[in-house]
Amino acid sequence: MRNIQSKSSPFRDLLQNLTPTAIICLSILIILIVLAIAAPWVSPYQPTEILTDESYHLMSDSMLLGGDYLGRDIASRLIYGLQITLGVTFVVTVLAFFTGCLLGFLAAVLGGIFDTLLSRVIDALIALPAIMIALIVIASLGSSLPVLIVTLALIDSTRVFRIARALAMNIVASDYVEAARVRGEGLKWIIWHEILPNALGPLAAEFGIRFTYTILFMSALGFLGLGMQPPHADLGLLIRENMQGLLFGSYAPLYPALAISLITITINIFIDWYLQQLDSALPSEF
Known about the structure:
- The chain has a single domain (35-285), classed as MetI-like fold (Orthogonal Bundle).
- The relative contact order is 0.14.
- By secondary structure, the protein is mainly α.
- The chain has 11 helices and no strands.
């Protein structure tokens, strides 16, 4: 019988094992998240406010990162672009995980024809290029925010389904799940109390991976002009809007590109550290 009491929580153990690299990455992520949340208070200007008639105004005391092609403050646009990118990405990833995990767990527990049909449909969707699906849907339904969120969530949920189903298949074959079935526990109880707690570790790592994938995918759509529409802008659209600035000696398109790189690199490094902690904890768990 498993001992459910522990002197130290897994979260506390993770904090105690933080390496300097993991601390740096976590600190950067926290700063970016706080900056995005506090955008209305920390932004020097409104993102749509035109401050000068000069295109690609160079850095000055009033515009620390210079201006864009319409004379708007790049720093303000960047902060609000960060807010939009992180906010939409978080919503998309949560929806994708809810849908993918729910269907993946149901497929593993129910099995049979339900698992077979659902798995084949997911395989067919995964076989299609994600960018092609997004282009078809957005071109047909428009690039409004709800359409963008639902489209990206559905594309991501197919990948989450494969991971969730594989994890659940291993857990369902365990003795404690069989014991729960013998006791007469229902489907909801098995998923919520047996499968989900034992799959949280790998799913947390997959959440970070899906988060970075969504940022890159959303930025690519924004760069193509199919993401957020002006006057609002995500990081990808900020690059697209100011590409010509490089010809005038402006670094306007480089700032959002660096922000995308910083987010994805720090998350990936932190996930690598987290996976190492999971691997080292496996012998003590089983």
